Amino acid sequence: MKIRIITYNIHKCIGGVDRRYAPERIAAVVAHYGPDVVLLQEVANRSPRSGGDRQVDLLGTMLGFQHRAWFPNVRLRGGGEYGNAVLSRWRLTASENVDLTIPPKKRRSVVHVRVRVPVGSQNPGRPRSRTIHLFNTHLGLSGIERRLQLKKLLSSPSVSAMGERIPLVIAGDLNDIWGTLGRMVLKPAGFRGSRGTIRTFPAYAPARPLDGLYVKGDLELVKLMPSRLKLARQASDHLPLVADVQLR
Fold it and tell me: To pair with 50 at 20 to 30 A between CA atoms, which of 20, 37, 78, 131?
């Protein structure tokens, strides 16, 4: 069973260069790749700068995703807030927000969702399915903060209590300036990622591998690539990462 996942810091749907609020550009970039699950960071809610929209529902409706989860992280000075969101074509059986804040730094968290994925059956009357756990995060700005946040996540019951074969995905805006978090923290914990460095920031001329996606358990990372669309270089200050994963 092949599953397509996108992780994308949408910058509240504000262009990284022209600073124009245009959620339709974000929706068009995502729709181009036909994902099954979308992990979004910096998703605004009732922000005056973003037209007061509840973006998780606005984008979910634009893209035809009925199954959604969103949790706030940061309150904006001008009003409203933003956080992380998940859109899914399949049912979310549970969702929670796991606090990763390292005081006195800015509040950070990870959205943990359980997605029930159909995997087919020889008996049409009894379709089979499996649960995949996805962790959508936006980590801090300092190196030590990011490492502590990932270690906090890995030691939390949400991750540490999982069996070795349980399908897990950790992805998002890791603010991984040097592209070392996977090698230093996630791979020693059994997660697998891309072999090379994938640059996603700034979108108009990518120089830093800030965003990432890692899998564990009965998941194989088949392909991971940044968007090459011209529109993606305008829609946000990050490029989205598109992953194809195989559920064993």
Answer: 37
